[in-house]
């Protein structure tokens, strides 16, 4: 008798997630995976159905139900839906964005074993949405990456649909001339959800365990910049790390925007590099370039003409150079400031 009661109690406690049956897309594939990362939904049953009775029996609905209340219903197809991630963003949310908006911080904490501080968690919450989830929202809602005039007839140079994540997920649906039963779709959906979920977890771990810790190293380098050079325009990283985005953010925080012009660090071989600072994180234009007469030179010729021993190269575009020692790359940066 006790065993029977225990089984009934556990069955009542089990959560149920519902999304629509039939063809699936990247947004609900990720939404379901994200929910299942949470302790609350870890062992939840997944139902794929368009039957309102199944909706009523479920604890949470994603991409189905024609409602959004932030509690049980997380659909975006209904007329009059214009929810965005926050006031900073203009992209209308899909089911992926809706789930991430409400559960994103808890999802990140789960993936990173509750390590981020509150401020770091806020940074990651925005970063993951901006770099990954927003594009899925836009794709599912038919929003272009570019603002294109109505009368323009732009033709792409190539097609990349098949290699985009939404394209890959779409391709995981059963083919029209294969088994297209509900069971076949459900099996393919499970595979698609695992695929996009794995990509998502890898991305979050990368930001949380690599990108975010780099901020502390960049901050350390910025704080010690006057010990490197009195101009304050050169910083030395204690080791290579992703530095560009952090540098711009820290400059803003410390009210020294556009002050730093060169970053020194070691490469994978142990040699030293001197990098210019781009005007933004994706630009090929830099705040100040390495000396124009030395660009494109290498090794002994570069060492002779610069008067700096141990030089390896300066790129022809002038945005980066290399040498055998920290002292040498520092001298190349100093020459550029002169």
Automatic annotation (TrEMBL):
Q: Which InterPro entries match?
A: MYG1_exonuclease
One Gene Ontology cellular component: cytoplasm
State the family named in the UniProt similarity comment for this chain: Belongs to the MYG1 family.
- Its name, as the record gives it, is Myg1p
Tell me what organism the protein belongs to.
Answer: Saccharomyces paradoxus
Q: What is the lineage of its organism?
A: Eukaryota, Fungi, Dikarya, Ascomycota, Saccharomycotina
Q: Which gene encodes it?
A: MYG1
């Amino acid at each position: 008798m006790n065993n029977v009661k225990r089984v009934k109690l556990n069955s009542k406690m089990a959560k149920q997630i519902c999304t629509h049956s039939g063809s699936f897309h990247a947004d609900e594939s990720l939404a379901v995976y994200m929910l299942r990362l949470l302790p609350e939904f870890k062992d939840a049953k997944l139902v794929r159905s368009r039957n309102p009775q199944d909706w009523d029996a479920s604890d949470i609905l994603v991409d189905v139900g024609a409602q959004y209340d932030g509690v049980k219903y997380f659909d975006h197809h209904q007329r009059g839906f214009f929810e965005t991630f926050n006031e900073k963003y203009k992209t209308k949310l899909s089911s992926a964005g809706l789930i991430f908006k409400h559960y994103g911080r808890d999802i990140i904490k789960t993936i990173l074993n509750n390590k981020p501080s509150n401020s770091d968690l806020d940074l990651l919450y925005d970063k993951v949405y901006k770099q990954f989830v927003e594009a899925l929202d836009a794709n599912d809602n038919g929003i272009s990456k570019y603002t294109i005039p109505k009368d323009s007839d732009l033709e792409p140079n190539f097609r990349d649909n098949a290699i985009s994540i939404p394209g890959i997920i779409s391709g995981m649906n059963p083919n029209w001339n294969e088994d297209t039963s509900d069971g076949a779709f459900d099996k393919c959906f499970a595979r698609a959800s695992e695929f996009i979920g794995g990509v998502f977890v890898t991305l979050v771990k990368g930001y949380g365990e690599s990108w975010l810790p780099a901020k502390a190293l960049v901050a350390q380098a910025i704080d010690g910049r006057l010990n490197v050079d009195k101009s304050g325009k050169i910083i030395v990283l204690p080791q290579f790390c992703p530095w560009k985005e952090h540098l711009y953010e820290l400059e803003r925080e410390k009210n020294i925007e556009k002050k730093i012009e060169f970053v020194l660090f070691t490469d994978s071989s142990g040699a030293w590099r001197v990098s210019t600072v781009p005007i933004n994180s994706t630009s090929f234009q830099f705040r100040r370039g390495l000396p124009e007469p030395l660009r494109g030179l290498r090794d002994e010729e570069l060492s002779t003409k610069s008067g700096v021993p141990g030089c390896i190269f300066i790129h022809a575009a002038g945005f980066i150079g290399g040498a055998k020692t920290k002292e040498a790359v520092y001298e190349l940066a100093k020459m550029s400031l002169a």
